[in-house]
Write a structure and sequence with these properties.
alpha/beta; 7-stranded mixed sheet; 3-stranded antiparallel sheet; 15 helices; binds pyridoxal-5'-phosphate
């Protein structure tokens, strides 16, 4: 066969596939409202765009240090110190081309062939695939609606074997919007320490948390074996700029930097400068985005809970709502959530994502990173079409 077995065995990203489908339908002239996308609908704030223009004018257009510019690393170090009282040095930080790339560097650097990595379902689509590329095995521990999608320590314990190398956490969580409690973070730290496991903690939605709920950074408890993954994509509406970063023990970060140096020389120079300003000079525009997300969350959850057969809880973080459609499926004779999603797309022109994409049954994910006007229209359409069926 022409294509390697490994690449051949990988799945396409279902969320990116849905984005592609939506743009095709739009180019055919269909009035599709996308509640499928995982990116803020706001433009990148002006203070960040100006920073990029300044970087261009100053000819900051060359290769940078492979692991990230010293000034961006300093902004990241300051952020950890100011927000969590965590002390890192430049050797503890690696800047990559997006959080996804930072995650990949850490997974590939830590896992050997045959190792096991524990992830929680519903999971973000790339976790199992990245683990598989590293020739390791994703071990999936399910979380549930009634426990607000907080993982249970007893379930994790059952999944640990001699081959377990790491646990991958994601809080605030995509797709559920769950924010892990302080108790869970402390308990999982104890478990990891007892079993000498690594933690990779994906905190890309850290800035999008509501109702005074706190983000508990596991590095405050288990810094010696934790790699924090974060980036500018979601917090600063910078998905296309492709800057993410990892923070962790020097002996791992330096190896990750070596890997990155051989694969892609460095992250984009202009985007690094813009990200430095994004992080170190936060401005009011960010609050405006945040307040909008909150209003939309309250609205969409209300509307969805008023539809017979759909149930969702108010997510504590992110810009996703994850709703239980099991009753709707029974009532309307859908066999699975892919059918629900296709029905909503074909008949209501509203794009959503089936929980099958996240290794989970009977739920659909909707993103409220869309204008209030579009969300209102999408809810009207869904209500209308379900009443007609
Ligand atoms: C949980 C999670 N981690 C990581 C990423 C990737 O972020 P980036 O765009 O910075 O690569 C995403 C993007 O959707 C995500 O949802």
């Amino acid at each position: 066969m022409m294509i390697s077995k490994k690449v051949n065995s990988l799945s396409d990203s279902p969320t990116l596939a849905m984005n592609q489908k939506v743009s095709e339908l739009k180019s055919e002239g269909k009035d599709v409202i996308s509640l499928g996308v995982g990116e803020p609908d706001f433009p990148t704030p002006i203070y960040i765009k100006y920073a990029a223009i300044k970087a261009l004018n100053r000819n900051m257009t060359k290769y940078t240090v492979s692991s990230g510019t010293p000034t961006l690393k300093k902004a990241i170090i300051d952020k950890f110190r100011n927000e969590y009282n965590l002390n890192y040095t430049p050797d503890n930080i690696l800047v990559s081309a997006g959080a996804k790339h930072a995650l990949w560097n850490s997974i590939f650097t830590l896992l050997n062939e045959g190792d096991e990595a524990i992830i929680f379902s519903p999971y973000w689509v790339s976790y199992p695939e990245q683990i598989k590329i590293a020739n390791a095995r994703p071990v999936i521990v399910a979380t549930d609606f009634d426990n607000e999608f907080q993982p249970k320590i007893a379930d994790i314990k059952k999944a640990i074997t001699k081959k377990t190398k790491l646990i991958l956490l994601n809080s605030p969580n995509n797709p559920t919007g769950a924010v892990y409690s302080e108790k869970f973070i402390k308990d999982v730290t104890d478990l990891a320490r007892e079993n000498d496991l690594w933690i990779i903690s994906d905190e890309i939605y850290e800035k999008i948390i509501y109702d005074g709920v706190e983000h508990h950074n596991i590095a405050n408890y288990y810094k010696e074996k934790t790699i924090i993954i974060n980036g500018v994509s979601k917090a600063y509406s910078m998905t296309g700029w492709r800057i993410g970063y990892a923070a962790g023990p020097k002996e791992v970060i330096l190896q990750m930097a070596k890997l990155q140096g051989q694969v892609t020389s460095c992250p984009n120079s202009i985007a690094q400068y813009a990200s430095q300003i994004a992080i170190s000079d936060e401005q009011e525009e960010l609050n405006i985005m945040y307040e909008q997300f909150k209003l939309r969350r309250d609205y969409i959850v209300d509307r969805l809970n008023n539809i017979d057969g759909i149930e969702c809880k108010k997510p504590k973080g992110t810009f996703y709502v994850f709703c239980d459609v099991e009753e709707l499926m029974k009532k309307m004779n859908f066999n699975n959530t892919d059918e629900v999603v296709n029905f909503l797309l074909d008949k209501a022109n509203v794009a959503t994502v089936s929980s099958n994409a996240f290794g989970y049954k009977n739920f659909i994910r909707m993103s409220y990173a869309n204008s209030m006007e579009n969300i209102e229209e999408a809810m009207d359409r869904i209500e209308r079409i379900l009443n007609e069926k």
